Amino acid sequence: MTESKNITKGTETPQSSTKPRQSNIELLRIFAACGVIILHYNNAGIGGGFGAVADESMNQFILMTLEMMAICAVNLYVLISGYFMCDSYKRDLLKPIKLLVQLGIIELTFCLIKELPKGQGISFDTIFKYMTPSYWFIFVYISLYMISPYINLSWNKLTMKEKKTLLIVLISLFAVYPILLDIIGLRRNIAMNGLNTIGLWGSEQGYTIVIFVLMYLLGCYIRDKEEDGIVVSTEKIFLFLLIDTILLVMWAYFERLFVNVPITSTVAINYENPLVISEAVLYFLLFRNIKIKDGKIINKLALASFPTYLIHINLLEYCKITEFVKKNPGILFIHILVCTVIIYVISFIITCIYDLITKPLFKIVSERWKKCRIYSVSNL
Question: Can you give the pTM of this predicted structure?
């Protein structure tokens, strides 16, 4: 989902030709991909976990705890992009095309595999169902990728004090204020449409370009502070992360207690929630402090982090999630871990096959389109 690059000022060069990939961040990509699998394992409409688990049970608590540990996964992907792309003023038009082609081929393949045996034929609507709405991330991320050089141009002209002020304003307007409206709306059982700073229909749970830009700039800010030599100890980061996660879990249960709504309807899991945003930042800082000497295996496995996002939804239905959420809590926990690992491994295998087939074609396209596929923004 993100750039696997080390960026130097005003350029965008593949990591393989410059510095080696940072295995600690590659491990974070794998963690984020696994987080997305867990979120959709729980999702009542996808994996079915929250829809089938007994209310107020230990199993529900396990699902909710894992939900809160993984809820920042999408925000993490975008933050990593900002960290690596903040000084780049060039973009490759072939990259978003490759993402869309990958989405189309993978989903069409699963569509054929699942729908043809039914003998009912395959319509455009059937294919369209496989493409949406679960993959909203791709289209919003591509939009961010295309405009990011202009974001970088504006960002890098600011002083550190101005950057900090901008982030405070953005977080206040597009995180704190919207989540407060969501809480009030939930408490009063009324729609707060028209009052939100994000859009007419409210915060949309943070599934918007607004939160993507905010997370991107947070990644840029972390990169800037890192260059200033500011490092936070791993012990402090872990403590803050633990507190953050506990607060998110408590938030969900307090909403159920005081607002009288299903625990799965909590606004705590909204992407614009300041605690979710801070959780993503803390995870990044934690993994950034990890030292990995030889990360060849991690780097290889991380190549499947984005494809896993495309593939895993098609595999969750075979995990019998609605059965296992009713079993012993220990069995449920093991089942979640095993399913997550197996799905990631299968996604990695599919990724390797996909790359083997498509790389020669994309290489030809890349060479023939070389002169017109790169666009850049002046950094002067």
Answer: 0.90
